[in-house]
């Protein structure tokens, strides 16, 4: 767990709020889960990485925070996703905040993309975001409020190369965010997107964060430092809190000044 939380914002409105995070077992998602737990929120998170999810929940509980509710879930299985969201609502009573974080940025060439690869990528990177929103809407509508935060990427803005299908999904998330914000605003439900840059997660460092790639990143950024999962998580907290109650239909970049 992180030990650098002193000096950062505390949001009283997040205490006891029911928060659901998809893809919350590792990376940015795990940092989001941790940060909400430290705010006193009641956190549930979904992920197919069962061991990592159980470990995160137990670590937070061992530090004295309310143990987050971890539910194993393959988000590409929409029936399972709907069932898990229903279980979260049943056990937490509602969902006040939804963070659509789950994604897979597998690299690929144009020639490698098959119909099956395309469908699988969209089933991970785009489809669950919409259907998770659909599943939490009754609970949010019943309370007349809610904050939905969708995770996009600067990959479509740069644009990156070598992962065209992933980029198509991440660009679509911004459009989805804007139209749903317009549809749901009258009901007190806010919808925003967070757009991370090159975030130094354990997965990125393990698979692609070579010295050469890091040098390219730092050359592109205005800030010459690693951008970390907690940098993203702190923005998510603000957008979830009542401090951001007038903010919807927006996309916020966290990339050290790359874009």
Summarize the structure.
This protein has 259 residues and is an alpha/beta fold.
Could you walk me through the main structural features you see in this protein, from its secondary elements to its overall organization?
- By secondary structure, the protein is α/β, with parallel strands linked by helices.
- It has one domain: NAD(P)-binding Rossmann-like Domain (Rossmann fold, 3-Layer(aba) Sandwich), CATH 3.40.50.
- It has 9 helices and 7 strands.
- It has a 7-stranded parallel sheet, sandwiched between helices.
- Helix 1 packs across helix 9, helix 3 packs parallel to helix 5 and helix 4 crosses helix 6.
- The radius of gyration is 17 Å and the shape is globular.
- The mean pLDDT is 95.
Strand ordering within the main sheet: 3-2-1-4-5-6-7
Roughly what fraction of the amino acids lie in strands?
5-15%
The major sheet is characterized as: 7 strands, parallel
What is the tally of beta strands?
A: 7
Number of domains: 1
**Number of alpha- plus pi-helical segments:** 9
**Helix share bin:** 40-55%
Order of helices and strands: EHEHEHEHHEHEHHHE
Helix-strand category = alpha/beta
Radius of gyration over alpha carbons? 17 Å
Secondary-structure map with pairings?
Layout: E1 18-22, H1 27-38, E2 42-47, H2 50-62, E3 69-72, H3 78-92, E4 97-100, H4 115-125, H5 127-143, E5 146-151, H6 164-184, E6 189-196, H7 202-207, H8 211-220, H9 229-240, E7 251-254
Parallel strand pairs: 1-2, 1-4, 2-3, 4-5, 5-6, 6-7
Helix pairs in contact: 1-9, 3-5, 4-6
Task: Identify the notable features of this structure and list them briefly.
259 residues; alpha/beta; seven-stranded parallel β-sheet
């Amino acid at each position: 767990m992180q030990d650098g939380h002193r000096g950062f914002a505390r949001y009283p409105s997040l205490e006891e709020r029911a928060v659901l995070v998809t893809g919350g077992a590792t990376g940015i998602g795990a940092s989001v889960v941790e940060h909400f737990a430290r705010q006193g929120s009641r956190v549930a998170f979904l992920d197919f990485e069962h061991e990592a999810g159980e470990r995160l929940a137990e670590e937070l509980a061992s530090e004295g925070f309310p143990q987050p509710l971890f539910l194993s879930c393959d988000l590409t299985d929409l029936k399972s996703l709907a069932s898990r969201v229903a279980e979260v609502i049943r056990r937490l009573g509602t969902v006040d905040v939804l963070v659509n974080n789950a994604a897979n940025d597998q690299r690929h060439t144009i020639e490698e993309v098959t119909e099956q690869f395309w469908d699988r990528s969209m089933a991970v990177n785009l489809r669950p975001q919409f259907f998770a929103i659909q599943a939490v809407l009754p609970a949010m509508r019943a309370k007349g409020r809610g904050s939905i935060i969708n995770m996009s990427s600067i990959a479509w803005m740069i644009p990156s190369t070598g992962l065209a299908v992933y980029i198509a999904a991440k660009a679509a998330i911004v459009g989805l965010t804007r139209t749903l914000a317009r549809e749901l605003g009258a009901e007190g439900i806010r919808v925003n997107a967070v757009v991370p840059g090159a975030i130094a997660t354990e997965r990125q460092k393990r698979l692609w964060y070579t010295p050469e790639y890091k040098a390219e990143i730092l050359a592109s950024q205005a800030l010459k430092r690693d951008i970390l999962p907690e940098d993203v998580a702190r923005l998510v907290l603000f957008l979830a809190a009542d401090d951001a109650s007038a903010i919807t239909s927006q996309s916020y970049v966290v990339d050290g000044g790359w874009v």
